[in-house]
Write a structure and sequence with these properties.
This protein is mostly helical. Strand 1 and strand 2 form a beta hairpin. The chain is about 55% helix and about 5% strand. The longest helix is centred in the middle third of the chain and has 17 residues. The protein contains 4 helices and 2 strands; from the N terminus they run ββαααα.
Length: about 110
């Protein structure tokens, strides 16, 4: 099992990783930095994954992971007060997972 950003990194289930990372950051944890060995290690694992999460003709593994981190950062940076209607943490996590599904082309 590989850890990245304080949570389990599974290149075969990027939506769940993003949801777990959202929970971690929303609870006060720090988001992973894109500089350094942990990011490079995660990129290498993602690039070598057999699950088809990375389509090299569309995204480099580093770009894909960067986009995923950006989605988590965007959602965790929004204060509750900016929402027109209240949105609980469970729904916000679900939205992060759905955004990542759409980015990587997951059908489930």
């Amino acid at each position: 099992m590989t850890m990245f950003g304080g949570v389990r990194f599974d290149p075969e289930d990027l939506p769940r990783f993003a949801g777990d990372l959202f929970d971690h950051v929303a609870a006060g944890g720090t988001a992973p930095d894109v500089d350094g060995a942990p990011f490079a290690d995660a990129v290498g694992i993602l690039a070598g994954s057999g699950g088809g999460a990375v389509d090299a003709d569309v995204f480099d593994a580093a770009e894909l992971l960067g986009y995923l981190l950006a989605v988590v950062h965007a959602e965790t940076s929004l204060p509750d007060a900016v929402f027109v209607e209240p949105v609980d943490a469970r729904e916000r996590r679900s939205r992060v997972e759905e955004a990542v599904r759409r980015i990587v082309g997951y059908r489930a």
